[in-house]
């Protein structure tokens, strides 16, 4: 439109953490080789975690989980966050911060 800047730049980076892949490149490799990134869970484990018996034995129940590696390995000092604050922070927030940093490094 009128008055739009023509001298702007874009900084583009890509990062992600996925089940079975710590980086976008590893994720792409997994897609190419049709890797299965699910962790299959035993009935004993499900029961020990309080999953109801009716669920464990239901014909449509798929006993698997999709987990990312090391969600608890957050370097709070690197990001200038106190130990206590990091310990009570939502794990998804910590992963978001790490992944955002990785995307900036990738740019």
From TrEMBL:
<dbReference type="GO" id="GO:0005886">
    <property type="term" value="C:plasma membrane"/>
</dbReference>
<dbReference type="GO" id="GO:0006633">
    <property type="term" value="P:fatty acid biosynthetic process"/>
</dbReference>
<protein>
    <recommendedName>
        <fullName>Beta-ketoacyl synthase-like N-terminal domain-containing protein</fullName>
    </recommendedName>
</protein>
<dbReference type="InterPro" id="IPR050091">
    <property type="entry name" value="PKS_NRPS_Biosynth_Enz"/>
</dbReference>
<dbReference type="GO" id="GO:0005737">
    <property type="term" value="C:cytoplasm"/>
</dbReference>
<dbReference type="Pfam" id="PF00109">
    <property type="entry name" value="ketoacyl-synt"/>
</dbReference>
<feature type="domain" description="Beta-ketoacyl synthase-like N-terminal">
    <location>
        <begin position="8"/>
        <end position="107"/>
    </location>
</feature>
<dbReference type="InterPro" id="IPR016039">
    <property type="entry name" value="Thiolase-like"/>
</dbReference>
<dbReference type="GO" id="GO:0004312">
    <property type="term" value="F:fatty acid synthase activity"/>
</dbReference>
<keyword id="KW-0596">Phosphopantetheine</keyword>
<keyword id="KW-0597">Phosphoprotein</keyword>
<dbReference type="InterPro" id="IPR014030">
    <property type="entry name" value="Ketoacyl_synth_N"/>
</dbReference>
């Amino acid at each position: 439109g009128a008055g739009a800047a023509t001298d702007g730049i874009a900084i583009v980076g890509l990062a992600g953490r996925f089940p079975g892949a710590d980086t976008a490149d590893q994720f792409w490799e997994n897609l190419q080789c049709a890797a299965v990134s699910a962790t299959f869970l035993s009935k004993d484990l499900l029961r020990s975690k309080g999953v109801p018996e009716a669920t464990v034995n239901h014909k449509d129940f798929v006993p698997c989980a999709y987990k990312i590696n090391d969600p608890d390995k957050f370097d709070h000092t690197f990001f200038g966050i106190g130990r206590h604050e990091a310990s009570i922070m939502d794990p998804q927030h910590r992963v978001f911060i790490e992944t955002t940093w990785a995307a900036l490094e990738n740019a």
